[in-house]
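Q: Convert this sequence to structure tokens.
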Amino acid sequence: MALIEFCLALPVLLTITLTGVETANLAITVLRVNQLAMMASDNAGRVRSSIDEQDVNEIMAGIRFAGSGIEFGANGRVIISSLEGNGQTGTKAGNKITWQRCFGAKNVTSSYGLAGAGANDASLFFGMGPAGQKITPVPNSALIFAEVRYTYHPIVVSAFMADRELSAIQAFTVRDRAQQTLTNTKSLPASAQRLCDTAHLSAT
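A:
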């Protein structure tokens, strides 16, 4: 009798257990995605004096390593944008995306525009971020804004939880950096730079 009762209860117990495992894994992944966004923005904002393509490559290498546990390179994309005042006056005054770099194989673009956006108009006057929560750079400095997109795949089967699109944003003000232009002192070719076009979609 006990064996029969166990067999009847097993599908229910298994379903509850697997659903709990999936929910816990999703919660951990959401935390990791937010941490990756914070890591990208914070590290890019910490580079002093000036920032170079080689610095960006090192930052992205850190993102790749930190996200290896969730296969971020293959299933995600981080977009780092440097936002600063556009130097315009009157109705064209606002902010511009000075440079933008990306990592990951997920084919997505920034929600706020590509590099150069806002340079000649006030489209980014209120900065970057969700409606009602936009943030702007402090005068004579820049804001590093990181966007992370990630496709979550369930660890068991899709019957318990379908694929989900996760996203996170973080912003940090640049610290002690007078030169905001992204340099290339090592003369890295375009193939070695973390550009944001479709030709640079890569998990590595």
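Residues 127 and 135 are 5 Å apart (CA to CA).
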